[in-house]
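Protocol step 4 of 5: obtain the predicted structure for the target chain.
Materials: sequence only (see below). No template structures provided, no constraints applied. The aim of this step is simply to have a reference model before the mutagenesis design in step 5. Sequence pasted as it appears in the construct record:
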Amino acid sequence: MSRSHPRPPVDPALLNHGAPDALWTNLGDWTGTSDYTAAATALAVRVGEAASLGPGDSVVDYACGYGDSLRLWVERFGVRRVVGVEPDPQVCERVRARIAGWGLRDRVSIVASRAELLAPRRVAADVTAVVCVDAAYHFRTRLAWWQMLAADLPAGARVAASDILMADRRRPGPALRWIARAMGIPAENLVDASVLRTALIEQGLQDLQLTSIGASVLDGFATHAPRRGLAMRVTGYSLRALRARGMIDYALIRAIRR
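Step 4 output (structure tokens):
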């Protein structure tokens, strides 16, 4: 479910049972559900809550995919404005059509760019929060993206992301590197929570919280996600293999720029 490369056309019936207008592409939080749309929405909600989104916020959403999260920030959290950043220009065009269909062009927009190359204040000078749902592990590199945020965000801005991490500090072996490459994860991003925490603190981010939610996300996806489609099958197999060996975890990350 890579966010670094152009996406193929998505069949809503394949990914989103019972919600043909939804085009989520995240791993989902499967707590209390076996439905993909409910799980994908739940994971985004957890990120929005971690960022303390609310009325008055100007939000930048990195690697927003087909835009369902953009709508969620407005309709569920009541944010004033949201700008999505998505690397695939064709996906961006589709999102613009969806935004128009939702009647949200006055509050929601999207720009085509790799996340690591576009500082938040370049697209939203008044940014108060940054979110990234299940995508930062694809960035080249994740740390470069966090460094950019720490350097550019105004004081008091909140950042929240959900992200795959190593379960411990073991050195990634050839098998793990191969699976990570198949999932679109650069080797540089194969670090554990303690390494990432130290790096973010060194960048000046404070009130840092990293909460493990691997059981509800990774194990839930491996158990419940639809098996149709190559991307779903490869991702499910990879997660099962890595979790069985205790190699990876999944974290909800929150920080504030002081």
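Step 4 remarks: The chain has one domain: 12-257. Strands lie at 58-62, 81-86, 108-112, 129-133, 158-166, 205-212, 248-257.
Proceed to step 5.
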